[in-house]
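Morning!

As promised:
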Amino acid sequence: MPLHLLELILFSTYAELRAERSRSYLGLVWWIAEPAMMMAAFWLVFDVILKSGGPDYLPFLLVGLTLWQWMKSCITHGGYAIWGNLGLIRQARLPVLVFPLAQMLADTIKFLCIFVLLLVILWCMGYPPNITYLALPLLFLVTLLFSVGASFLVAAFVPFIPDLRFIIEQILTVVMFLSGVVFALDAVPSPLREVIALNPVATLLDGVRAILLKAHWPDWWALLKVGAISALVCATGIACVLRFSPRYPKLAV
Amino acid sequence: MDSPLIELRNVGVAFSAQRRFGSGRFWALEDVTLNLRHGERLGVIGRNGAGKSTLLRVLAGILQPDRGTVKRAAVTCQLLSLALGFTPYLSGRDNAILSGLMLGLRRREIESRLPAIQEFSELGDFFEQPIATYSAGMVVRLGFSVAIQIEPDVLLIDEVLAVGDAEFQVKSGEALRERMRQGQTVVLVSHDESQVSALCDRLIWIEHGKSVLEGSRDEVFEAYHRQLHLAGSST
C-alpha cells in the first residue's frame, strides 16, 4: 500500500475519534456509558427477572457484549463507509477501501480501551490474569479478520442498495442472539446447538471467555477453522469492493 | 512535437438513469477524442449538460470510460476541489491536513505547507478552531488555500476560478493565473468566455457528449459562435 494512503487512513481514524468526542455533550464518556447501559438492560432481563443467568452470568455477559459490540460496530460503521463517502468518491481518485478501514481502525482503538477497563473489572471480580492471556492477540486478530471481511462485503453492496442497511441491523440482532452473546449456548437442545456452533462469532466468544474466566487455552482446531472462514470472507469482500469500485463514482449521492 | 500526456479516443461514459435494477443508461459522454500535451492550457466549452464536467472526471481518473480508450503518461492529474473531505468538528489545521492527504500529498509535504495555507487563507487564530465555527466565506478561503498548494502535473479546473468575497476573489484568481503563466498544464471548464479566452490557448468544443471541434482558441470560438448564432436565428 502506498505510504500516503496509510497516512490518510491513520489521519482519518484520528479525525473520526476526534469528531466523535466533539459530537456529543459528554464525548468520550459514551464509550463506556453506552455499552454499560446495554449490559445493565440484559442483566436486568436475563438475570434479575428471568433468573436464567446462572452463577457467573455478569462476567459472562460483560465479555460477550464487549466483544460483540466491537464486531458489530466494525461491520456497520465499516459497512456503511463507502456509501457515506460517495460525495468524496465522486470528486477524488481514492481507493475506496480507505474509508471502511479508517472506520474499523477507530472502532478497534475504542474496543482496546474498553477491553482494558473490562480486564480491570474482571480482576476485581476475582478472575485474575493468567498465562492463557497470551492467546488473546491471536483471537483478536481472527475476530478482526472476520469483522473486516463481513464489513467489506456489506460495504460493497450498500452503495447500490442503501435499503440493505435496515435488513443488516436485523440480521446482526439475530446473529447476536445465536452466538451466545447474552445467553450460553449450552441451554440450546442438541441438534440445533451443533448448527449454531458453526457460527464463527460463537467460537470466538467461547475462546475469549475460556481465557478470561476459566484460564483455559482456546480450542485450536476450532480457531483454525474460524480463521480459514474469516480469511475467505475477507478475500471475497475485497474482491467484491474492487470489482465494483469503478461504479461507485457514478452513483448519485 | 512531444507525445500527449493524456490521450482520449472515442471515449464514452454511461450512467444509470436511477437507482433501480434494470433502469436504462444514459451516455453523459458519447464520443470524445482529445489530446493533451505538456504545458497546454486547454479550455472545454459547450452548453449546459454537454458533458464537460464528466469529461474532467475522466481526465482526473475518477471515472473509467465504458467505451473508447484513455492513454495516460505517468503524470498526476488533480481536480481543483475545494473543501475536499472537510469535517465540521476538526480545526482548520486538521482539515487542511486531511484534505491534503486526500488530494495525494504526503503528511510531511502538507505539514510543511501549513504556514503558507494559514497565511493565504487569512484565518489567523481561527486556523486552530473547528471549522463548524467558520462562516461560509472562511471555509471557502481555507478550501482554496489548501487546493492551490497541490501541484499536480495536470490541473483540472471546473468553474472554480475565483472564490470568496470581492477581495479574496482578486487574490485567488491572481494565484491561479500565476500558476498558469508558470507553464502549468491546465484543462479548464468555464461558462465565462472572457476567462476562457484570456487563459487558454487551445479549445475543445463538446456538444451532447461528443467532441465537435478541437483546435486553436480563435478557430473553435468562431465555429462555436457561428453555430450558436444559427441556432438562435432558427428559433
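The interface with chain B takes residues 3-4, 7-8, 11-12, 15, 18-19, 22-23, 88-94, 160, 246, 249-252 of chain A (CB under 8 Å).

Hope this helps with the figure draft.
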